Amino acid sequence: MLAPSSIKTIVPFLQKALAPFGGWLHFCGGGKHLLEPFLALPEVKGVNFGNPEKYDWEKTLKQIVSAGKVYYGSVFRKESEPLAEYFRRVLAPLKKKGNLIFCPVLRETESPAEAIATWYQIQSALF
């Protein structure tokens, strides 16, 4: 975990490492202080959180979209949240397709085929 005071020190190294092709950044924990400075870097194309439950999904996705970046990963799912409701909540902050490579949290009783069909049905209705 990086302290807020360390960000200015590491940014030049991140830019140099990502300069040839761009890249993604992953961080765990409550790294909210890292998100804005990292999204401001042109070399950063996307982010992934190790602890997505620590973020306000709607606010954070809007911040990522506003920066022209992509979120790759899962989104916290409430214990009793039905699949369709979960997908609607995940998609709600978006105005169009894009900016999201989603890895859903599925229950043992939910098949990948069911999840894909539900996702496309909801996505088609929204966009």
TrEMBL record:
Protein name: Uroporphyrinogen decarboxylase (URO-D) domain-containing protein
InterPro entries reported in the protein's UniProt record: UROD/MetE-like_sf
Source species of the chain: bacterium (Candidatus Ratteibacteria) CG23_combo_of_CG06-09_8_20_14_all_48_7
